[in-house]
UniProtKB/TrEMBL annotation:
Residues 120-168 form the PAS domain. It holds the Pfam family GGDEF. InterPro entries: Biofilm_reg_signaling, EAL_dom, EAL_sf, GGDEF_dom, Nucleotide_cyclase, PAS, PAS-like_dom_sf, PAS_fold. Residues 416-670 form the EAL domain. GO terms for biological process: regulation of DNA-templated transcription. PROSITE patterns: EAL, GGDEF, PAS. This is EAL domain-containing protein. Residues 274-407 form the GGDEF domain.
Amino acid sequence: MIKSYTYTYKDKNDLLDFMNTQNFASNELYVIKASLPDWKSTEINQLKRFLLNFLPNSVFITVHSFNKEEASLTFNRYGSITESFNQNKENHIENDSAMADMLNITTNQYINLSKKYNEIKEYFFSIVENMPDIIFTTDLNGCFTSVNTAFKDTFGLGIEELKGESALTYVSSKDVPIKRYFIKAVRGITVQFELNLIVKTGDLATFIMHMIPINVQDKTVEIFVIGRNITKQRKIEKKMERIAYYDADTKLPNRMKFDEILQKRIKKAKKANSEFLIIFLDLDRFKTINDMLGHKSGDKVLKIVAKRIFSVIPKGTYLGRFSGDKFSIIMPDGTDPEAVMQIGQELLQSIQMPLHFENQELYVSASIGISTYPSDGSDNVELMKNADAALNHAKQQGGSSIVFFAGEMNKETWQRIEIERSLRKALENNELYIAYQPIINTKTGKLSTCEALLRWDHPEYGLIPPIQFIPIAEEIGLIHTFGNWVLNNACKQIKEWQEKGIEHLSVSVNVSAFQFQNKHFIEEVKKALDYSGLEAKFLHLELTESAMLNHTMEAINTMQILNELGVNISIDDFGTGYSSLSYLKQLPIHRLKIDRSFINHFKTDSREYAIVNAIMTMGHGLGLKVVAEGVETKEQLTLLKKLKCDYIQGYFVEKPMSPKKFEEWYYSTDLLSKLY
């Protein structure tokens, strides 16, 4: 028989009196329910042990509330159905077989249940305490109710210091709406957010926080918060982002980042129905500096240029390094074209200031192309394409200029694309040929050398200037093929002319810096000489200063090997680069060619005269022959002879000619009467 009792009492003696009046049997199972609203937990535990001595098969259920309904609910959770309840002392014995049958619990089952509960509690406590993440709980007012060891280790605060304190007061973040998240959690919604907190070391750490409502009977009773320190992860992510989106040399946003920002800017402008401008800025002839100083030094120059640009552009401007020596700029809203033109002029002036670098004074210039949203492009691709078209137009004008995009430039862009496409097939379609321009000895008046010049006769556009297609050939990697073709055919042509009686004629062949730096270049020269049968002493290789003065052991070694073969080496366009006497002394060269820009305005009292005179003196002092190119008048020839110039080349002698016309010119022209 299972018996159930509900009893309200004040002390143990009172309970003993009740037990003495009853006939309790030790082999019966008793379920005793008691309301003990003003008893301490230690007293209740003593009471339980006391009762178990008398009733070893009993189950003892207690509540701590004066409220009758709350006490009844507590009893009912253990299976009680109905009992009378009084706050005053009351003896009540009820044989409730139905209720006892429903409980059907033994003392051992109860003890096992208690053990299981304690195990679960200990298990949960162990997990929480040993978690590396910070864990704490708060009441519905946001006050701390517990913290784990990781929390204490991270912030140096335990529950003793935090008990009753609001967790919200320890958060100072303008970016994260903490209160809003907390209210959601109180309403039973789990929330996740990122939060920066100051840890006990004084450092700012980043945590990913989860606020989880603790629900009992569909009612939120507490908030469980777990936070993981992701500071290292965020640092790695930022580092990876910097690698992916920022240029390593200038620290500026790269092309990918610029494109992303531009797309956002377009969305903003589209929504606001506003306009803005973008600028593409590219350094003029920066390749010369790279070839002369090397790419590492060139990168240092770019850093200086980036700082100069940043010092000029207004606040709110977005600056990036688009690629190579090209910078991209997004101007602030409301910047009109006139203001941009003024800023552009300031940029050009700032960039043109002397650069003192590695004991040298260098000068660089820049070109600027500008496009406007939305008139010059409704998306990022079109807007950048048109800014680039304007930039190319500025460079074609000679550089150091600013050009706003105009619709006609698109035609030029498509023409360039067509040129690039056609250039790839120009050789196999027999569109390329070599023109030869005479170089005359000023002392004898005789033909000494001729320069082999590559020409392209396009079937649609006609003759395309080398200055237009050679840079494209370099960009797309065709310069090696074209260069070798010119080298082989020029050597072969000279050998044929020698055999026809034009004795001692030599040929000058222009060599691109790309060709010269190719590891197979020496072998290509040998093959050309073997193929043609031309002696090496009749071949002059013309290199620009930038190609020759990339002062590396490989470059010097290449020149020395060519010199040992008997090949002559000339510096082309001398005076336009950054060469110096110290460089020239170390290089095995034979000729200097004075750039035509110094001959154009060549007069006795001109600045050009002084420069040409200095070059002559320096060249002859080094034992070199000097060639003046671009000679167009008898007066220029007279002055050059006075300065003891060794050779002349230019329209005054003759324009570049096809092989057939060159032969006709040679046999029909009286050079002595023309020159003297």
